[in-house]
Each structure stands twice: as C-alpha cells, then as structure tokens.
Amino acid sequence: MQNPENTSVCFITYDVNIQFYTIPLSGGEPSLLWVGDINDPFVPLPKEKLMLKVVEDRERIDLFLDKLLVMHTPEHKKYHSPFLCTGAAIQAAKHLIEDDGKSLLSLCV
C-alpha cells in the first residue's frame, strides 16, 4: 500500500440492505447503521464518523475485523437472502469518497 499514513477505510457490508459501521474509540461494540433504500443509496453519517485512518486507527481496525467475522458467521445471521445489493453498496461507497478524489476497493466475500 502506497502512503498508508494517508489511507483511510470505511467498512460497509451488504445483503438486501447496506450496513455501515461506526467504531468507538474505546474498543467497544461497533454501531451498525442500516440503509434500506437501495434504489437511492446514501451515506447515513458524515464521512468523518465512518472513516478510519489505517496507521492511526490500526488497533481499532483489527479489533473491528475480529468482531465482524463473528457478526457475519452463518450462526449469527438469522435471514439469508439469495439477493444482494452489491451495486447499491458500491454506489453508497462512491458517495462517501466522491469529494476527495480517492480510490474505492471492494472486497466481495
């Protein structure tokens, strides 16, 4: 990664809805923000509340990723839909970075 000190990340997951996460400074539980309008997706909070700096917030990112794995195991998902709103999630992510001229990386797992 070039210039990790200038790199920020935001975590977005999706199924039939888009989910944004806010990660507390204290390392507590992340807050989940649901965006159900996939026809006109939007960013539910200012980007400053959603973005984390890769270098400065590394510990928070690592803790969140560990929790995210548990949150999205099949045992914890009560509803499994064959439909996904991938396009809407990518559109929402583009809205998040459109003013900064930043790049978007999407990982679909």
Question: If you had to describe this structure to a student in words, what would you say it looks like?
Answer:
- By secondary structure, the chain is of the alpha+beta class.
- It has a single domain, classed as Rossmann fold (3-Layer(aba) Sandwich), CATH 3.40.50.
- It has three helices and five strands.
- The strands form two sheets. It has a three-stranded antiparallel sheet with strand order 2-3-4, covered by helices on one side. Strands 1-5 form a two-stranded antiparallel sheet.
- The two termini are 21 Å apart.
Walk me through the topology.
Elements lengths: L7 E2 L2 E3 L3 E5 L8 E5 L11 H4 L1 E2 L4 H14 L14 H12 L12
Antiparallel strand pairs: 1-5, 2-3, 3-4
Summary of the model, kept short:
This protein has helices at about 45-50, 60-70, 85-95; strands spanning about 10, 10-15, 20, 30-35, 50-55. The chain has 3 helices and 5 strands, in the order ββββαβαα.
User: Under the CATH scheme, which class?
Assistant: Alpha Beta
List the strand order in the largest sheet: 2-3-4
Taken in chain order, the helices and strands follow as: EEEEHEHH
What is the number of beta strands? Answer: 5
What is the fold named in CATH at topology level? Rossmann fold
The percent of residues in helical segments reads 25-40%
**Coarse shape:** globular
Output the number of helix runs. 3
For the record, give the distance between the C-alpha atoms at the N and C termini, rounded to a whole number: 21 Å
| Corresponding CATH superfamily | von Willebrand factor, type A domain
Number of domains: 1
How much is the average pLDDT?
84
What class, by secondary structure content? alpha+beta
Give the radius of gyration: 14 Å
- Can you tell me the residue ranges where pLDDT is under 50 for at least 5 consecutive residues? none
Share of residues in strands = 15-25%
- Major sheet size, sense and barrel closure: 3 strands, antiparallel
CATH structural architecture: 3-Layer(aba) Sandwich
